[in-house]
Structures are given as structure tokens and as C-alpha cells.
Amino acid sequence: MRKSKLSIPTPSTPKIGELFTNNYFAVPNYQRNYAWQESEVSDFWDDLMDIVNGERDGHFFGQIVTYKNSNNNGKDIQEVIDGQQRLTTSLIFQSVLRNIATEIKNDNCNRITDDTQGKLLMIDFKSKQMIGPADERTLVLQKTADSEETDLRTFFNKLLDLRGEVNFRRDTMSEPMKNMVNAYNFLKRNVIDKLKKYDNIVDRINCLDKITAAFIERFYVVMLSTENKRDAFIIFETLNSRGRDLTASDIIKNHLMYAAKNELEAVDEKWKQIADVLKGDSKRLTRFIKTYWAARYKFVPEAKLYKSLSGQVIDKDDTLSFIDDLENLVILYDVLENPMANKRNSGFFKDKELMRLINVFRHLGVKLYYPIMLAMYRKKYSEQVMKQVLNMALRVFVRHRTIMNAGTNILEKGYAKVAEKIYTEELTTPDEINNYMRETLYRTNKEVQNAYATLNKELKTAGKMKWTVLYLLQEYYDYLEDSNGKIYQETFINDNYVPCHIKEDKIDAELVNYIGNYSLIEKKLAVKLTGAKSDEERANIFKQSALKYNQNIVEWLAKGWNDNKIDERQKQMAFAAINIW
Question: Which member of 30, 355, 361, 363 has the lowest number of beta carbons within 10 Å of its beta carbon?
Fold first, then answer.
């Protein structure tokens, strides 16, 4: 059987403006329709803003794979095999820029100079050049229907010609049409919001001009155009379907090796040592770098870590500084993830209270605070200061998340901002750091008391849900008995005390898991408690406990334990909570 030979085209790397100026594209009917939703369009906008705000010089927009075809007029048409989402979004954005430029010009004809009017006219001209006239579009979408109302190609052309507000009937739109309109509205809204930051009309026009230039001149693509459709499909499949997915750390390593230049071997050796501490786990390595980056520069989601980092770590000196920081901090990171894993980790800090706080965070499954610890350690803060700051970070977490059950997004970004301010030395003393957290992240006493009044946690035998209940009770018992950490030692280290329900039968189902119905008790007594049939039996079991506060529960049980008692005790615990945390 004769094997067919794959012809590999020479890729071109045009700017997005050049791409449309020099090519005509057509999306064949067999390709999927426009599918980008807000998350993808938002990423597009964020990438553009990185350039506009001076954080990056350019952006790689992705690859375009085409099969070069010819129409009846002999004109080359690039049949799009991969990249139609990027191409479609690009022209939608161009129509947004053109329309905003037109609106500014019409609304401010008496307030703008010849120079700024020239910029608006140039934006209009560039957009027309990229989009093309109605009878010769630079991008022709697939025809999906004979009816103009339901045909995607016709709809797309109308959207590109649109000069006013979007007023298409949504009830007649297909999903791809809605996606296009949503993309248009999202981009227009964000451009306008960006311009509103300037009071002066000239500054707004200059900003619009800067946005246009950033997109047309700083967005790059790699275009692979074949003479054979089969080759185009093979290239597309190879680009999208082969090999394991790379983690961010894999891609970052490649960038560092390139940027290191003649220090490549030294950087590679340090990278291996760092990876060895993290057991060669590329996902842990990615999380470590993401944590460090949040402390050193800014918080970014993992999907944007490489882009943010590669824009800052550019040359050999940047790379050496970066890899040295990672090397100095990687053991600390391992300690934060596994504080009691071995002697090295458990003895990393001499201050026992600091290690206690780290261990509590670990049992609660909390990693959000890591950037703060990395920043403090990098700035050589004392263990005493670290302890003060970490104690506040834990109080913030318990109030915000454990008691109020609020989302972690605010804390993740908030802790990262604290770390950034420590790293840049905007905050230097424990009082400054803690006051900043109190002002920006601390939930009020009233909020905490109100939330605690109905706080309930399901009892589990393992995992962070178990440790959350255990921690809340341990702190409450420590607070009442003033045990100087003894109860923490018996719960978190020696595992001698466990949480349990005071009573389950004849209790409203909604109140069984209220914190007010929980107690802390010795393991051997907890087993007996599960078989108790009456309040009297339960009281006799609690009498045997070495915990002083459990004698109060004996008195509660003697009076009869019921829903009202749970509610009353929970209010007492809520009042204590604002003093504990």
C-alpha cells in the first residue's frame, strides 16, 4: 500500500491586522458554529488589557490552520480548519471599536480637535479594512439555513454592519447567534467602562486608539496554510490531540531554560532540586509557583500563570532571581502542606504556637494563606511576628468561611494582596499587617454572632469536615477552661478527644448538627455515648470526662436536653466566638 506524504507548510507569524489584510477566510459548513461564551471572551479582553496597561509587549493569540482553496474568480480563499472562534471574535471586536469611535465622533463633533478626529477616522478605516465591504468580507461564516432570519452567515454580516444598539429578537436567535451578540455586548461594555475612567474626551479618544493599536499590532498568530485538505486536518489533530496535557510548571520550565541563556545548566540543576522536594509532582510544583507569584507579584488563576510570569521573568537576571527565590522557599512550602510529615518539617520552626497554627490550617484544608507565609519568610520576619500575623489570618478565615460560610474567592485575593504588600514593604510591622487584614477582610462581630446562631456542621469521621467541628469545639473548650493549649494537644496531636452529638434522638432533624448539640469527649467515652438510651445515662458518661466543661453538660442533661437547650447553648457559644476569633 502506497503511503501518502505529509507536506508541512512553512508557518507565518502575522499580527492580527495583517492576517485579515492579506487573507480571505471561509468557515466550511462542517465546522462547529460560534461557541465562545463569556469566559473565553473575558480571557480575550484580559489579554488585551495586559498590553494596554503595559504589563506585556504582545500576546500570542493562538494558531490558525487553513486549507488554501480558490473560488471561481481565482482568488485564494483560506478554508478554516482551526481558529474560527478567534477569527470571528476578532471581527466582532473590530465592529465594536468602529461603532464606539463613530458614536464619540457624532456626540462630540464640536469638542474634538482635528488630530483626535483623525484618530477616530483611522480606527474606522482600520476596522473597515479588516472586516471588508459587505460583498467581500474577509471572513465568511458557514451557511446554516436558506432563511435570512435563521442563517448564521447572514446574521454575522448584519452584526458586522450594525451601527447602533443591538436590537435583534432573541427569541428567534440560535445559540451561536446569541453567543455572538453576547460577545459584542460584553466587549462594548468593557471598552466603554475603560474609557469612562477618563474625564477628558481627548484622553478617551487616545485610550480607544491605544486599545485598537494593541489589538491590531500586538496580537500575533501562527498561521499554517496547506495546499492539501488532508494535510490541514492532520496538522490540526497533531496540534490539538497528541501527548499528555502540559501543566503550567512544564511550560514555565521551558521558558526559564530559554531565558537562562548561558546559565541554563545552573538553572536546570536548581529546578531539579526544587522538584525533588515536591516529589517530582508537577501539579504541586505549579501550585507552589502560583503561590510564590501571588506573594511576589500578584494573584493570577492557574490558567494565566505562565502568561503573567513570562511577561515579568524575561532575561537571565530575572530567571536567576526567580529560581533562587523558589529554591529558598520550597522547603517552607512543603512544611505548610505537610507540617508533621517528618522531623525536618515538624522542627522547621522552633515556636510551637506557630507550628500549631500551621497544623490547624492544614487540618482545615486551608492553603489560601500560603502567600503571606512565603512573603514573611522571604523578608526574614521573626517567628514571633509570623505567629502574630498567622493568628490574625486564621481568625479572618474562621469568621469569613467557617462561621459565615462565605466564598473563598475574596480571601484568596485578599491574602495575596496582603502578601504582595509585605513583599513590597508597604506593610512592615505585625500591627500594620493585622490592621490591614482587619480593615479589608475581617467580618464584624454582629455578622459573626448572627451566623453562629444557626451554625451547623455535619459530623464526619475523617477529612476537613471532621477537623472543622473538632477545631471549633477545641477552641471553645480551651477558651472556657484556659487550658494553655492542652486540649489542642489531646485533639490535634494525640487524637484522644473526639467530637460527638450530645443527643440525637427526639431532637429536631434541623438541630441535630447545630454546633450547640456537639461536645468534645474522650474517645472511649464517645463509644459509650452512642449506645446511651436516656439523658440520665448520657449525664453519667459525661461525669467520667476529665474535661471540666463537660460537667456543665451533665447539668444541662439533668434538666432534660431538648431543642430549646440547643438553641440556648448555641447563643452562648456565639457570644464566645467573637472573643475567640
Answer: 30
